[in-house]
Design goal:
The structure is a single chain. By secondary structure, this protein is mainly alpha-helical. It contains twelve helices and no strands. Helix 3 runs antiparallel to helix 4, helix 4 crosses helix 7 and helix 7 runs antiparallel to helix 8. The radius of gyration is 21 Å and the shape is elongated. It starts with 7 loop residues before the first helix and ends in a 6-residue tail after the last helix.
């Protein structure tokens, strides 16, 4: 199907719809992943995914699990649209005369897609992480204040107000300009480019196994399972980069937590103070997020909802 012309508007719409559906389903697990990755030795608030979600609901209510979801839902549409459409674009232009792409060219197409998406991914992740991790920091400070109050009988601390995405954006733009929203760009590239290099070729080859005929799309369940397997595999493979990115993009730190000056400094401090296993914090959470997210995304994308919607629009007369 390499010779089939790409309908860019349709693919952008498909990618956007896919992202919206996927994020809505898995966002609480993504919040737990961020909080587990950010907590450091000696300051642990959560012991596991379930412990994090239970404590979040108890302290922040059910909707506390969706802090930062508005930012993600707003920006995930262009992010997923760019990622999926760019991969198709590069695959289309790397193929010649309808011939099957080599593995190297599939990886190059994935590399191009991962590079393109960071334009949206970096500010989206930057804002989302601040909102997701605010509850962990507030809970940690509350616990420390309670312990201090017991020992010193000091007055009860005032309730801490958490900033909104708009407030964070304005402050970053005011103090650092547009570069403030792109803090951690290098780490985001370090995560997203290898992810796409692994994910897209793996998905394409798994999906082909379910095609009885090269000219006919694989059944939706094959695309879903292929997206799940490829997504979870790529997610675990690049999890160390995701941990580094999350730490670098966090503007606020908990009590006695390390700060980092860059990728190498962050890598060195995590290795020395928390051990190599720290690079796989939240790996199973990330796999649980990415598997259904990309499974759903690929089903929506390959079913072609946008093509159906565009066909329903009245045709312009010649």
């Amino acid at each position: 199907m390499a010779d089939k012309q790409i309908s860019l508007p349709a693919k952008l719409i498909n990618g956007g719809i896919a992202g919206l559906i996927g994020v809505t389903c898995v966002f609480p697990i993504d919040l737990a992943k961020t909080r587990l990755q950010n907590q450091q030795n000696g300051q642990r608030m959560y012991t596991s995914l379930s412990d994090c979600l239970i404590k979040t609901i108890r302290s922040e209510g059910y909707f506390g699990m969706y802090r930062g979801a508005a930012v993600n839902l707003t920006l995930v549409t262009p992010e997923k649209a760019i990622k999926l459409a760019a991969n198709d674009f590069f695959r289309h232009h790397l193929s010649k005369d309808g011939k099957k792409l080599t593995l190297l060219k599939e990886m190059l197409a994935g590399c191009g897609a991962g590079t393109c998406q960071v334009v949206v991914t970096t500010p989206m992740e930057m804002l989302k992480i601040q909102l997701q991790d605010a509850g962990r920091i507030a809970a940690q400070r509350k616990l420390m204040a309670a312990q201090s109050q017991i020992s010193s009988s000091s007055p009860e601390p005032a309730v801490e107000r958490r900033p909104t995405a708009t407030q964070i954006t304005r402050e970053l733009l005011r103090s650092k300009g547009i570069a403030g929203l792109y803090k951690g760009l290098g780490a985001t590239l370090l995560r997203d480019v290898p992810f796409s290099i692994v994910y897209f070729p793996l998905f394409a080859n798994l999906n082909k196994l379910g095609q009885k005929d090269p000219s006919v799309k694989a059944p939706f369940y094959v695309s879903f399972l292929s997206g799940c397997v490829a997504g979870s595999t790529a997610a675990v493979a690049v999890n160390p980069c995701d941990v580094i990115k999350t730490r670098l993009q966090s503007l606020q730190r908990g009590v006695n937590e390390d700060t980092y000056s860059g990728i190498l400094d962050c890598t060195k401090k995590i290795w020395q103070r928390e051990g190599p296993t720290a690079f796989f914090k939240g790996a199973y959470c990330r796999a649980l997020v990415i598997a259904p997210l990309f499974g759903i995304a690929q089903v929506v994308y390959f079913v072609g909802i946008a093509e159906f919607l565009l066909d329903m629009l009245p045709k312009r007369r010649a």
